[in-house]
Amino acid sequence: MIAPARLMDAFVEMADTLVDDFDLVDFLHHMTDHTAAISGSSSVGLLLGDEHGRLNFMAATSTGAEHLELYQLQTREGPCVDSVRSGQPVVVTDLHQATHRWPSFAPMAVAAGFGSVHAFPMRLRDRVVGALNVFGVEVAPLDETDVRVIQALADVATISLLQERALAAASTLTQQLQGALSSRILIEQAKGVIAASNDVTLRQAFESLRKYARSHHVLLSDLAARVVDREVNPSEFAS
Amino acid sequence: MGTSNTTTLLRRRALVWESIERQDDDGAPDGLVGRLERLCRGAAEHVGLTGAAVNLMSPTGSDGVVAASDERCKDLVEMQFTTGQGPGPDAFYLRRPVLAPDLAAAEEQRWQGYASMALGAGVRSAFAFPLQIGPTRLGVLDLFGDVPEMPDEEQLAVALTFAQMATEILLDGRLTTAEGDLDPDVGSALSYRVEIYQAQGMLTVWLGVGLPEALVRMRATAFEQGRTLIELAHDIVAGCSLVECEI
Questions:
Q1: Is the domain of A71 the same as that of A189?
Q2: Strands (E), B16-135
Q3: Which domains does chain B show, CATH number per domain?
């Protein structure tokens, strides 16, 4: 068990993705560090699914754990893979006895010097975003309280991640919207510039703007921006 | 959060859904814009005010009213755009609701220009709620009333729920097409502003000034004449000379 103050800091940190410079990889490394501190294990690894449901290796606290996570991805078997698939925790207190379950993974983990493994799903209701593995050197289960604390931390981190994804999606949509809006505005402003410069109607101004964009193979909105900024002389559009 | 609080939140959201999905009022078109128009009417009704409008905004200013409960509310937002003042812009920049229960009160001198125009149009109170999620901001839900009165706590909570759901509707991904163009409905809803931008472009040539200065000159002229930018821009585009338009 770790000191309550350290534990509280961990929870606060995992709840906060609303920072300007949010970094997913950094966030997940902290997640594995906190889990290592709580469990007392030095080998913690984390796999995360992308939007297509493919699993990716994201973070580990030791080279041994990193290798075992990558090995699970290659062989598509192991505790993390099972936990993501089922959305349930996976507990194997003696890896020597797990060869029938994971023919490739279990001998590999034993050879790497591990005796037990716990996998914690990162899940919110029916959405599983990834899983967290805690590898133990001993053939023994984790302390029951530690298990509950780690699962709680994984739950908080999952909510934070989903929220961060929603915010990133909102931000992308807003940027698209702003782009689309400002293109429209620029085109109207350019029409005004051309009409006033050449004493033609707005319709004629628009036609000459389109003609120029076509013959010079440039986007209408890019051309409009250059007219408005006078990088293209409005007299170029005189009929 | 207790069960009763959750129930209250769900009840408020149900109010908004009921307004949006209402089929009997068929004045509004279908699609995104229609849903927002019904949301505006529902917001006014359930908050106990006379009208509402959804104003799309970016850090550079207002991009236009995408939906309103009625034409007068749209005009009231345009007055904010004309004067560059009002609860709407403040709510957007401050990222919090801005409440003005009595535009005639002495303290509303913060928006002197806007308050006098809005009072002239017969409105007495104005309330603005930012449409935002995390750091992302989309615009403002503006609400207007005809009597100097502050909505009660529950009405304000309902107004916030309407703003939150307007944000959700705007973010459901249909504002822009896959090609990055503006949704045609949204585009045509915002097209009433085109003459402002055209006139702005014309003035940069006639006055030999940049775009921001052209807009400032138009704003000053429109405000002096007690008109909105749209009315002034219409005259400029229709061929009114600088002297005639008094710019």
A1: no
A2: 51-58, 61-68, 98-100, 125-133
A3: 3-175 (3.30.450.40), 192-245 (1.10.10)
pLDDT of residue B243: 67
Where among A153, A170, A187 does a domain terminate?
Answer: A170
Q: Is the pLDDT of residue B1 over 50?
A: no
Instruction: pLDDT band for B8, please (50, 70, 90 cuts).
Output: confident
| Cβ-Cβ contacts under 8 Å, A21 against chain B | none
Helix-helix angle B211-224:B71-83, to 10 degrees? 120
Rg (CA), chain A: 28
Amino acid, single-letter form, for residue B139 = G
Q: Do A195 and B58 touch (CB under 8 A)?
A: no
pLDDT digits (tens, 9 = 90+) for A206-216: 999 999 999 99
Q: How far is A21 from chain B (nearest CA, A)?
A: 12
Lookup result for tokens 């009997």: B24
Of A144, A170, A196, the position where a domain reaches its end is: A170
A233 and A163: one domain? no
A-B contacts at Cβ under 8 angstroms: 94
In tens, the pLDDT along B123-138 reads 999 999 999 988 889 9
Q: Rounded to an integer, what distance in angstroms lies between the CA atom of residue A124 and that of residue A198?
A: 62
Closest-CA residue of chain A to B132: A170
Selected residue with higher pLDDT from A175 and A216? A216
Is the pTM here over 0.95, yes or no?
no
